[in-house]
Amino acid sequence: MISVTELRAGTTYEEDGTYLVVISYEHIKMGRGSANIKVKVRNIKSGSIVEKSYINGAKVQDVQVLKKDMQFLYKDDDFVYFMDPKTFEQVDMPIKLMPDHIYLQEGESFNVSFLEGKPLSVLLPPKMTFTVADTPPGARGNSTTNVFKEATLDNGLKTKVPLFISIGEKIKVDTRTGAYAEKA
Length: 184
Known about the structure:
Blueprint: E1 2-3, E2 12-15, E3 18-28, E4 36-43, E5 49-55, E6 59-62, E7 66-75, E8 79-83, E9 90-94, E10 109-115, E11 118-123, E12 127-134, E13 148-153, E14 158-162, E15 170-174, E16 180-183
Antiparallel strand pairs: 1-6, 2-3, 2-6, 3-4, 4-5, 7-8, 7-10, 8-9, 10-11, 12-13, 12-15, 13-14, 15-16
């Protein structure tokens, strides 16, 4: 058993027979009462995302997972495929367990968690670099405020970018929100 204050992004635990992976963690202390721990978790089997709240001092069942750095190979309609760069062993993972599969880039290494020999989840870096494939030209005008335009990236993701970004430029995207983070 582990305390809920030890839950961080990427931590896997079991509750009522279901395996959950923590996406985000928030510690809230208000006034005189005890602190609350709010976590956003993904159900590993169904892929659904839920918010859970615990009181400070509560405990959850820890799950031992094996984490390996694996190279992303490719994806098809049903699975994503990874390879262990040391043993060249290939594993497939149902695409429904990987809702953020749009961020996977061929040849890149990602941290994959395994439970009982089966891939559970993939930990994405907080920011990743992509190339702008299509965006309208920047308009002149009042640029003192944050003015954004629509852009399509090389992975098919659509996001808002500042007016000065043009086709072919590399930008960093926040993988948690899908929003523009900075110019690469």
